[in-house]
Structure formats: C-alpha cells, structure tokens
From TrEMBL:
Keywords: Lyase, Pyridoxal phosphate. Transmembrane segments: none annotated. One of its GO terms (biological process) is carboxylic acid metabolic process. Gene3D superfamilies: Aspartate Aminotransferase, domain 1, Type I PLP-dependent aspartate aminotransferase-like (Major domain). It comes from Geodermatophilus nigrescens. This is Glutamate or tyrosine decarboxylase. The modification N6-(pyridoxal phosphate)lysine is found at residue 237.
Amino acid sequence: MTPQEVLAELTALQAGDVPTHGGSTMAYVYDSGRAGVEDLAAAAQAAFQWTNALDPTAFPSVARIEDDLVGAAADLLGGGPATVGTVTSGGTESCLLAVLAARERWRARGGYRRGGSGRPRLVLPVTAHAAFRKAAHLFDLEVADVAVDPDTCRALPAAVAGALDDRAALVVVSAPSYPHGVLDPVGEVAALAAAAGVPCHVDACIGGWVLPFLDDVPEPFDLSVPGVTSLSVDLHKYGYAPKGVSVLLTAEPELRQGHWFSTAGWPGYPVVNPTLAGTRPAGPMAAAWAVHRWLGRDGYAELARATRAATVALAGGAAAIPGLRVVGTPVATLVALAQDGPDGVDVLNLADEATARGWLLQPQPPFAQPGGADLPATLHLTVTGATAGRVDALLADLADAARAAAELPRPVADPDLVAAAATIDPAALTVAEVDALLELAGVGGGRLPERMAPVHALVAALPRPVAERLLAGVLDLVYRPRRAAFSG
C-alpha cells in the first residue's frame, strides 16, 4: 500500500467513532474549541514522538519538560517548597502511584505492627474514581467503602472517621467526583486523616486545571489544605493536551520515593522507573508543555470561566426540563441528571434518545451504597470549551429527548435471567460460558444493541461480581483479533 492508501484506510476506520471535536461527545474527550491548539499540540508531539522518556539523562529535554509541567501544577495547586511530582500517562496511573506510595509508607512505618492485622486498607467514598479500586486490586489493599450523603453526594466525614483504623493506608477525596461533579469536604476529611496519621489524596484529575481559575469554589481543596499529602491532575483533560498526560504531586519527596522502582539486580543497565512504565512516550508531555506555554494562566482562566458559565447555564436549563433534576451542586464542569420523582424521565432511556440526536451523554446505573441510602441512576455530562457555545442547542435537544423518553416503557431486566445469575459463581465461568450468557443478554459477538437502556438496567440488577465478569466478557469479544489482518 502507498502511504496515502494507508492513511485513507485509517480515516475510514474512524467512521464509526464518536466525534472528538465539536463538543457533542460529553465524556472521554476534551476539546478546547480554540483554533490552533490542536495544530500546536500535534507539531510538538511529532517533534518528540521518537524520544524515549525512560532515560532523562540521555534525553535531558524530557527532564526539563517534566520539571516545567510539575512546577506549573505545583504553583497552581498549592504546592509548597518541598512539593515534587511525576508526569504519568493519565489519571489512572497517577491514582495507582498515589496508592502504591501510601501502601509502601504504611509498610515502612510498621503498619502490620500497629495493632492492625491483615492487609492495609484504602478508605474510599463510593464516588471515588474506579481507578482506586484498580489500585487496590493490583497492589493488594482492601477497600473500605464509605457511603456518601444521598442528597449532596459528598463524602461524609463521620463515615470516613469510622474507617480510620490501624489498617488505613490512604484516604481519598475528590475535587470534584466524576459521577456527580461535586466537591468532597476536603478540609474536614484531611484533618481527620492527619489526626489518625493517615495520608490523604485529592483526586483532582478532572477539576484541578479548572477550579483554581474560578471565583465560586466553596472551599479549599488543594495541597495548601493541612493534611493533604498528594494530589493528581490530568493535563489531557482541561489542560487540553492530547492523551495521555497527568501529574501526580506529593507534598514531600519521601512520599514520591514510595512509587519509584530501582534495580541493579540484573546484568543489564541499571533501571530506575518513576512510573509503572519503562519506556515512556515523550510526545504527549511535549504537547502538554507546548499548549501550556501558549495558553498560559490567562488562556486557561478564560477557558475555565467560559466553560464554568456554560455548565451553570446547562444545569439551570436541565433542571427546568419536566421530569429531570440536577444531582448535588456541581462546582466545576460536570453535571449529573437524575429522574425527578417516581413519574420522572428515566435517564437510561434519555441517554439513548440523546444519542439519536447526536449527543454522547454517559449513563450511570443506580448504585447501592453500603449501609446508606442508594444513589439513583444518573446521566453524566462533561462540559468543555467546545461545548460552551452549544448549550442552547444541547438544552433544546435534551428537552426533546426527555419528551420522547417519557413515552417509553422503563427498562427492566429479565427477572429469570437475574434469578439465574444469582446462582452463578463468576470466578468459575469459562470464556465460552460468558460468551453464551452475553448472547442471552443481547450483547453477543461484541455487538452492542442500538438501545443500551435495557443493558444498563441489567447491569444494575445483576449481582455485582457477575455483572463485572460479563462486562469484561463484552470487551473480550470486542478484542478478538482479526487473523491475517496485515496480509495481502
């Protein structure tokens, strides 16, 4: 094939993807809407696409770029003279490393000998990002789930306090939480954690590059808050850099050492890795650096304020649509919509109707809290710079979609299927058995149905371990390799 033919084939492959620009995809992607940002980022990324950030002594430009990005984040987010940081591949890796560092500190300080027994614990409000559950799985921590207030969806300090025993290795709060866009009581929780001798991490992956530029943030949330020991912020979100770039800040150098890996225990070159990866792409870092240099604080402030104003307008307009309500008090650029009253609009159906009108809005099934009131199904909307100019069009389509959704029957999971699932041991299921169950559920072959509301209703009704096994099975079907894909 010629280069032109190869690129044409790649372009054709994208025909079924959701749009990455224009503001209609309100999850996964972040579009500034600013002309020139993409071209600058692409040029900077191309300049560093062959550079290996594994060894900054061989590529000192990488060290300069990383130090500049960490310094900018520390200046913006309350870092003190001792603050250090690490550039990672994204928010998940930043969260993983924060948990790993906390686990290592717990062990180093004799966690097993302080009266606790068993594994260290990760204290998580249920609204904390799923990345922390992944960290607990990978690094062998036990998750201590903490209920949130069912009305505000904010973490409950008293519930956190009840989990701060000798096994607690880290407490997490969100600024804001991804599911509902609300700010946890960072100061109260961090003070409780500090009194118990437990580190406190602020997940500001989605809000850290927005909140510092706003005038209506109700309370401090960053490293300036006493008791906060680490903070994560993504530059490929509201830093408007390409995927994937995030920064993990730690209040002191010793904590950062807990997630570094160093070995001279083999016959090859000495290896030191500050992240989970060895070889690290420098291109996204360079792109983030370039976009930051161009926009500067003033450019980011302008984008943040415009996006926040659009979010406020969106929340107000959505709340006025019959059958819908806004969950909690959004503090940044995220809005969660729920059914208003027993006869309100089912938001799982609403998500399908919005898709039919050209908007990707993210459905979130209802969630049963441990020892607390359940959280309702919600519809998640992430507002970006590109969406800011389209709020009126979005509200018009949302109102039309709500009217259509109100006429639909509510999605209900097949009771026989749910009853059968209750008897299943998900750990014993083979891949073939999962494939067969997915066929029964209507998502066989990795083919998602046109309307997803029944699927989301089924996920919510199934026992959680079974649902998680089947969800993994869906992705397993999607990633079945095409044989001889590069032949002929």
